[in-house]
Structures are given as C-alpha cells and as structure tokens.
Write a structure and sequence with these properties.
heterodimer; A: alpha/beta; five-stranded mixed sheet; 8 helices; 10 strands; 40% helix; B: alpha/beta; four-stranded parallel sheet; 8 strands; 58% helix
Chain lengths: 260, 467
C-alpha cells in the first residue's frame, strides 16, 4: 500500500509519499502555491513521486488537505487540515497533545488525544495578524530579505519593542513609526514575534495548552517565533525537522488507515 | 421574468395571474432584476427542500408577505413595525385587530426574501452604514436592515414603531434617534430590562410581569390613538389563539426532527419557524395550512424512513445561526451533521402556561419566561437544557459579535456546554451580514468539528459494545 498526502496551503503546497511501513520514512516535496492551485498540486505530487522513485500509477490512495484541498482532482478524499495536522504531529511526536500550527493565512491550536485524534481546536481565520502572511509583510517593511532571516535577527534584540496593533495593516504603520523613532530592526522583529505569540496564547487559552506542544507550519522554522511562543505560553515548544509537511504527512497516514 | 421562481415557490398558475402584478411591483421597488431572479432560482433550488410542497408554499408565502410589506402604504395600510425578536402575541393581536393595519417585524421579511432567497441584503446594510449605523459598535446588521431598507425606499416609513429592548438595548435607541428624530416616526416603547433574578429562571418576578403588562397596554393605547382601533381583550385572546394554532403545527414538525434519519433540512424548517415567529397577518392566515402541508410530508418521510442525511450521522444544535446565508447551514449538513435544533426551534411559548388572571399579564408572563427576555443566565440555560433534551452530539455556537444581547450569552452557553461535556465550536459572524466571514475558512472549522463528532460517536459505540 503506497499512499500520498497533498497539503495545498495558501502559501505553499506540500506532498508526502508513504509506504505501508510508515516508520521506514517518507518522501516529501514542497513548492510555492502561486496562482494556479490545481497545477501546484499536480506538480508537487509529481516531484514527491520522483523523489520516491515511483510512478503515479503505483499510488493506491491519495488524500488532499489544506485550503485548496478541493482543487486536487486526483485525490480520493479531501480532509480538513486540522485533522491532518493532528495525525501527522502524533506520528512524528507520539507524546504530542497540543499542536500550534501557524500557516500562511491562519493559525490554529489543536488538542489531540493519545491516538492523534483531534478533541478540540481553536482557529484564527479572521485576519492576517498572527499568521505567516503577517511576517512576510513585516519582512518587506523592514527590508530583511527573505522572511526566514527574521528569526536569527530577532535573537540579537536587547530591548524588544511592543507592537500593540492586532491588524497587519495597522501594525505596518506602527512598525514604520517605531523605526522612525529609532527602534532597531532586531528589537522590532522581536516585538513582531511576541505579537504573534501573544495572539496564539490568547487563542490557545480556550482549548488549553497541554504538553508536549508541537509547533508546525512554515512559521515554526522561525527560531525567533519559536522562542517568543515558548516565553509567552510558558511551555517547551517542540518543532519537528520538517514542520511544513506535517499536514501532508497526516493526510498520507489517513489514506493508509482508510485502506486498513 | 419571475414566473419560474414563483412556480418553484409554490404559486399556482391562477395565483400568479392574481398576485403577479403586485409581486412584480414590489420586486421593482426593491430593485430585483433579472440577474437577481436567476440567482434566487438557483439559491432556492440549492438550499431549500423544494421537493416538498410545504416548503415551496412557505417560500411563496414569504414572497407574498414581502409584497404586502413593500406595498403596505400604497395600499392604504397603517404600518406598524415591531422589534425583533418580536413579542409574537402583540404582533398577532395587531394582525387580528384591523384589516387596515400591516404589523410585523420587517427585518424577518427583508432577510428571508432579499437575504435568503435573493442573496441581496448587503446593499441595504451599506445604506444603513451611511445613515448613522456604522458596522461594529453594537450596530448589528439586524438594526441596519430596517433603517437601510427604509432609506432605500424598499419598505415604507412606518406610522408607528413598537420597540422593545428586552434583548437589545440598542434597538430602542435606534428607533428613537433614527426613526423618530430623523424620520419623524412615532415610537411606542414596550420596554423592560433583562434584570430578573438568575436563580429564579424561568419564573419572572411579579413586578416585571406587572410592568411589562402595563407597557403592552400602553402600546395598545398608543396604537388606538393613531388608528382609532381600540384593542380589546377579546382581540388579544384571538391573537394569542391564532398564534397558538400556528405554534402547535410548528411544535409537531419540530418534534419529528428527532427522527433518525432527520426528515427535513434546517434551512427549510427555518423559513417556517421564522414565518411563525413573525406572527404577521399572512403568517396567521396562511401559516396553519402551509404548516399542515409540511407536517403531512414530514410525517410521510418519517414513516418511510427517508431523510435528508444518512441515518446515524452526528446530530447537532446550531445556537444563534446565521439568518441570511443558507449556505452556512448547507455546508454544515453537507459535512454530515444533522442540525436538529436551531435558534428558532425547540422552545415555544405554547408549552408555557400562565396562571395570571389578567390577559396582558398572561402574555407578559409567557414571554418573560423565554430565556432571552428573562435574564442572561436564562438565555444560556435554555439552550444548554435544549442540547441535553435533544441528546445532541455537539453544539455549534454562533457568535454574533455585533449583537449586544447575544454576544456575551454565547460565551456563557459555551462554558455551560463545556462543563456538561458536550463538544461545541464557535462560528463568528454577524447575524444578517455576509461580509464578515470567509466561507472557505469556515468550512475547515465545520468539517473538523464534524470529524471530531463522528470519532466520538464511534468511540462511544465501541465502548458500549464492550460493556
């Protein structure tokens, strides 16, 4: 049994190919979603198949997830990304009970049980503040190049700024104004990370943080955001090696289960 | 251009001949064009169970009600608007008091026809935003709806509004400032505040009953002053009886939703429930017959074991649902959740008996026993009890963030459900506004919740099997 999971997110599209013996490892691919969701899904699946060294015909079952999950016409089933993140995180970290997923356009706190089943969740889908998009906008405003540069820069902060706006557009004005007042990029970025962490912490209060806390999604790669989340929640934050593919992995695992 | 739509909404050919010109005129005043009619046809077919004659007839009755409302002044009627949620006995009393009066909460009609059927309510809300009701600041879309529709000339400026602030203290302010001061409309306040002792729910304090009864009497007196129609106790009794007849049909259909598989979709039941709650003249006249038609059909489905969803799917309550967008309910049902209880179902005043000797006090007592008018705790407790009585698998709590009356109780209800171990999920929106959420992100929440409830059902069944 060979399954695939394809996670079509707002920013990136990911695919995972999984053999029946999932513990033996998996193959994954990732690319930017761009404006053609359908072709992104096709392409990422092809790339992951290439890595696995198999053809599309060898796939027994494909599940899709993410905002564009309905666009993947080749998928046998579309599953919500919350369910998939729960499954994927549990596979990678069996002790995981809380997942913080910060993706391109939303953020979620997911509580799972000891079998990886979702028991409660909380989601910010109202605005871009507290999402990867927020960080991208701030990276552009502060001219730090790629968003991935923000983490290491923020660790050099000595006097973190307070960003009070909860809206991406207003936060942009606030950052520009603080910059004009002489705030350093390091302190501003640390403040931005803390603003995101604070929003996540408020959202998480409803479902409650239980250890082990696993951080997934593209923003999990940002060491500054991870540090801020740990400080804000008072919890140890665990980040898997490839936090972006957790949803796709969960979809592939669910596809395996469906068959059994 | 609207002939097909009317046929889908249960109009017979002769009825189209008879009512067509009036309906056409009302649609023209409301700015309903060909594109809107096409959209309406598509929405009606997609979101409502038009296979059932009862549902078709209810939608048709709403179109007639809309026509009555839009043309009321032109047709020489004295127009009275009541607040939403209405005190149905008062609306029903005015409906039976005189043939020359059009009375009711206009928001329900605008929402059903312009919102649910045509998907064209936003221009009305946008107009209200330019008239002193900006979004947020507790100016909910329900309040915007009335002002925007008057300002756009869709519905007539009323001769009198009877406003109550039981649930929403913003409604009397709106009617006073915008309708009275700006538009010169006379206002009668049938008011009270929700200050009953929480511990005594559902029994209201006698002082509140006496006060509310006096307020209803005063409002009826004001109605007399304006129309020359003296409201008698016999009229109040007749109104209550007419409303009671409609409520009984409603309750019977409501009880049938306990069947598994669920025999009727929530959007279709919702338009009937809404029709009943409006308690307008047309609702009292046509409601029992269309309700009976629906009841017969639903009974038949239950007998045949036919449902709108598979047997055994999780059953949920959708507390404070989105009134205007039937797409949300449709999405929930398509994700495999049977919506058995909503804001408009479950609790009916017919089930409540009052021992007060005075007819006005009886009306006051019956209405104040509704959680929304008793106290915030009553509001929440009523729904928490319903979720238990209907043995639902979970509850979707609509968080109407611009509604002063409902926003805080939504959280109180959620807390009660958490304590009772009933899974619940918040969906945020404003009750008549379709601009404040993204359906796709909402879908992620709904599908996840559906999956969580399915898993819980499975685990429960497994545990039961293993003793």
């Amino acid at each position: 049994m060979i399954s695939a999971g394809v996670d079509i997110g707002a920013a990136t599209t990911k695919a995972v190919i999984l053999n029946k013996d999932a513990s033996a490892g998996f193959f994954s691919a990732l690319l930017e979603t761009g404006d053609n969701v359908r072709s992104a899904a096709e392409e990422v699946l092809e790339r992951s198949l290439e890595k696995a060294g198999i053809s599309r015909g060898m796939l027994d079952r494909v599940f899709s997830t993410g905002y564009g999950r309905r666009a993947a016409q080749f998928a046998h089933k579309a599953v919500s990304e919350i369910i998939c993140h729960g499954k994927g995180a549990h596979f990678l970290v069996p002790e995981a009970r809380t997942i913080i997923d910060i993706g391109g356009q939303d953020s979620k706190i997911i509580r799972i049980d000891d079998s990886g089943r979702v028991i409660d969740f909380s989601m910010n889908d109202k605005c871009a503040a507290g999402t990867g998009r927020f960080l991208e906008v701030m990276a552009r405003v502060l001219k730090v190049g790629h968003v991935s540069n923000m983490g290491p820069i923020s660790l050099k902060s000595t006097n973190r700024c307070q960003i009070s706006s909860t809206c991406t557009v207003f936060a942009e004005s606030e950052v520009v104004s603080l910059r004009a007042e002489g705030a350093t990029r390091e302190d501003l970025i640390a403040g931005i990370h803390r603003a995101i962490a604070s929003r996540v912490e408020i959202m998480g209060k409803r479902v409650g943080f239980r250890p082990k806390v696993v951080f997934t999604g593209g923003v999990a790669k940002n060491i500054g955001a991870r540090k801020a989340l740990g400080e804000e929640t008072g919890m140890e934050i665990f980040v898997p090696e490839e936090p972006q593919i957790v949803g796709a992995l969960g979809a592939a695992l669910l596809a395996q289960e469906q068959d059994s | 251009m609207y002939r097909e739509l009317l046929k889908t909404c249960g109009f017979e050919a002769a009825e189209i001949e008879k009512e067509g010109a009036r309906i056409g005129k009302a649609f023209e005043i409301a700015g309903i064009d060909e594109e809107d009619v096409k959209r309406g046809e598509s929405r009606v077919g997609r979101y409502f169970d038009v296979e059932l004659e009862g549902v078709r007839k209810i939608l048709g009755a709403w179109i007639k009600e809309f026509t009555d409302l839009v043309l009321a002044k032109e047709e020489g009627k004295f127009v009275v608007y009541l607040s939403f949620p209405p005190v149905p006995h008062v609306a029903a009393t005015l409906a039976v008091a005189s043939e020359s009066v059009h009375a009711g909460p206009p928001e329900l009609t605008i929402d059903t026809v312009l919102g649910q059927i045509f998907g064209k309510i936003n221009p009305v809300l946008e107009t209200a935003e330019g008239c002193g009701l900006p979004p947020g600041l507790a100016n909910c879309s329900l309040l915007q709806c009335r002002v925007g529709a008057i300002e756009r000339g869709i519905i007539p400026k009323p001769d009198l509004t009877i406003v109550s602030g039981f649930l929403c203290d913003q409604a009397p302010k709106q009617d006073e400032v915008l309708l009275h001061e700006k538009m010169g409309v006379s206002v009668a306040y049938m008011d009270s505040c929700v200050d009953d002792d929480w511990k005594k729910w559902p029994v209201p304090a006698p002082r509140r009953v006496a006060y509310f009864a006096r307020e209803i009497r005063d409002a009826m007196e004001k109605f007399h002053e304006f129309t020359g129609v003296q409201v008698t106790e016999a009229m109040v009794e007749a109104g209550a009886n007419a409303y009671g007849a409609l409520s009984r049909v409603f309750t019977e259909i409501n009880d049938l939703l306990k069947a598994d598989p669920i025999p009727l979709g929530a959007n279709s039941f919702g338009v009937f429930a809404y029709f009943m709650r409006s308690a307008t003249k047309r609702a009292l006249l046509e409601g029992p017959a269309v309700g009976d038609a629906l009841l017969r059909e639903v009974k038949e489905r239950v007998r045949e074991g036919k449902g709108v969803l598979e047997k055994g799917v999780p059953r949920v309550m959708f507390y404070l649902y989105h009134f205007t967008d039937p797409g949300i309910m449709d999405m929930i049902e398509r994700s495999g959740l049977a919506v058995v209880v909503t804001t408009l179902s479950g609790v009916t005043s017919t089930a409540i008996k009052s021992d007060y000797p005075d007819i006005y006090e009886r009306v006051a007592d019956v209405n104040l026993r509704r959680g929304t008018r008793h106290s915030d705790l009553g509001f929440s407790t009523e729904w928490a009890i319903l979720s238990r009585d209907w043995n639902v698998d979970g509850v979707i709590v609509g968080y109407h963030f611009s509604c002063r009356g409902a926003a805080a109780p939504a959280f109180m209800t959620k807390k009660m459900l958490d304590q009772a171990g009933i899974p619940s999920m918040l969906l945020e929106f404003d009750l008549y506004d379709t601009r404040t959420y993204s359906p796709e992100t909402m879908r992620t929440r709904v599908e996840t919740f559906a999956e969580v409830l399915r898993e819980r059902r499975k685990s429960k069944a497994q545990a039961e099997r293993h003793g």
